[in-house]
Amino acid sequence: MNKCRRSAEFNRKTRETEVSVSLKLDESGDISIDTGIPFLDHMLESFAKHSRLSLRIKARGDLEVDEHHTVEDVAITLGKALAAALGDRRGIRRFGSAVVPMDDAVAICGVDLSGRGYFNFEGKTGDVKGVRGENFEHFFDTLCRNSGINVYLNVRGKNSHHIMESAFKAFALAFREARTVEGDEIPSTKGSLD
Ligand SMILES: [Mn+2]
After folding, report:
1. Domain ranges of the chain
2. Which of 133, 161, 179, 190 is the most exposed place for a label (fewest CB within 10 A)?
3. Who's near 173: CB < 8 A, 6+ residues apart?
4. Which fold has domain 3-179?
5. Ligand 1: centre distance to CA 40 (Å)
6. Higher-confidence residue: 104 or 2?
7. Cα 5 to ligand 1 centroid, rounded to whole Å
8. Does residue 5 carry a pLDDT above 90?
């Protein structure tokens, strides 16, 4: 695959939210995240930084209802952009894994860019300001289903901010490894990952 083509832009507008995502898988450093939820911005900046990609996200949602629609729709739009940027997934390493501690917390993450979206979650987290624990889990589940990425995530710890941040960092490192281009073949005995 031509490396410079691994980029995507995706816009999505509904009566609940408006989200735009632009990302470049093979270019790092251009990071700008504004979802209207500062903690989600913090998590997505961490994801972009540690997976070494360029990511711009602008979202406006009905936060007067609660954060659910915005969290979900950012995950849908980012997921579709990731799928588009990955393309036919030719030449990628496909698998990646990481263990990331953060003080009292730790996250273990395995990624398979299989084309089949599935989120396998163990552990639990409480709420932080702007993102309840149930919506943290919902973010990853939605991201996986919309990107065709299979993620195993196991978290434990005491501080919910640390738990969620270690999870985003572990996902970032595992994803960075998995998306690395190392050959020309589609890494599947079936010959297809899309
Ligand atoms: Mn933090």
Report:
1. 3-179
2. 190
3. 50, 51, 96, 98, 100, 109
4. Ribosomal Protein S5; domain 2 (3.30.230)
5. 10
6. 104
7. 32
8. no
